[in-house]
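ok trying this again, last paste got cut off
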Amino acid sequence: MLRIVIAVALLLLATAAGLKAQQLALVDAVVTLEDGAATASDAMILEGHNLSETQMAATLGIRELGVPSGAAAVTVTPTEITSEEGGRRWVLTVEASGLEGEISQQRYLAIRLGDLVATFPYQLANTPSGTFTWTITGPHAEVGLGTDGAIDIAIAVTGRPATGVVLMQADLVGDETHALVSGGWELCDAGDVCSPATELAFDANSANGLKLKPAKPLVGKYTGSITIGSDQDPAGQTIAFTVYGTSLVLQSLGVLVVLLGVIAAWLTSTWAQNRINRSELLRPLIALSDRASALAARLAKLPAPISAHVQTTRTQLAVLTGRSMIEEFDRNRLLPANFPVPGAGGEAWADEYKTALAARVERCSIIEFILDAGLEPLVAFNTGENAPAIGAAAATIDMQSAMAKSLDDAKAVIDVEIGAFSVAASVTDTPVPTLADLALDVKRTSIVFWIVFGLLATALGSYVVVFSNAGFGLWTDFLFCLFWGFGLPVTATQAGQATMSTVGTALSVPVPQSS
């Protein structure tokens, strides 16, 4: 039994020694193509040693496995050069085509020689000679997108070609939104072919122009950097800059919003100030109307026959009612309109208002004096036998409410009529409230000035807010346009701070009081 085991062991050792001696070897397993050529050839040496008789007579079979797969097409053609004493040698001619740029691949050959099978790795290298250098130039600091919506990038390549040029990273962040550019960026070649994944190639010793475009229209200000790399420079080169994006449509819309703000400010400030002015100028008329109403109530209490002869006084008091005076003053344009009218106001208008108001205050004072010193004292003499005389005296005194030009004129007539009844007219002049100078400084701007102001304000706002912002177009920009135009006129602030008392003081319009 021991002899059998030893015999088997010796047989195995002999077989192993024979197999080990029988071998194939690939000499210089590197295929180097000529200076980056797309189609080229090279050769390797395949050697076989300690081959059996069958292997010496067998035909060499060889197959390129195509690993890694890709655009490269590789064929291997063997040519036997020696065959002697149990050994053979072949030249393996390797031809490669369809190579793109600089590559270095490990590939594999499957070899069969009779019953001998082996697989060998080899290197397929396409490495140009020379030192690769390139320079990438972009915006130096701040730049606005051009009419084509792109940023110009210049790339100069020396020494060796640049392959696999691609935009590796783009970190441009909005100053206001703090977000990256929506959709990212694209690197475009001279033919304006753009794609985030496009790989470009440039010849050695060449100057090339590229364009960097946002995938979507860019609006606003973005600051950051981009990195462009290649097969020869995997780390890439980084360019830092600030870019502004806007459009003519957005800028035009911004100008319109500025104009809208100016118009809104004008309407708000002018209308509010106009309303306050009108209310202040109505106060003397309403106070005078209240005074006339009190006199009408006293007139209504006069007994007959006096009440039958005071029609003129009633008519004069009717003219002094609030509705009547407001309608007359509006008709004669002596009050600010409910809506500002271009060209209204001024010193001439103020003088006319003062004159009209003073005349009505004077007329009301005369009527009050007629009641105090004439008509009401006649009541004391109203007896049956004096009725005709009392009526005649009342009619004469009543006429003075329209005819008397001053208190003195009315007093002279009243003294005579009352004296006819042997009664001393011990009546003192009633203090008459006078109007101080109505210093009406109602600031009204003519329509020409309004147009000039609006155009200049809009032009200034457009320059400051729209055209000075190269990244104009965000919703906050339009909001700022509106606020800028709205807050421009100083009159808006003045109108907001005005009250009835402050405006009354500024206008110096005293309110006539009933005595």
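PB: full thing came through this time. Residues 248-300 form the longest helix (53 residues).
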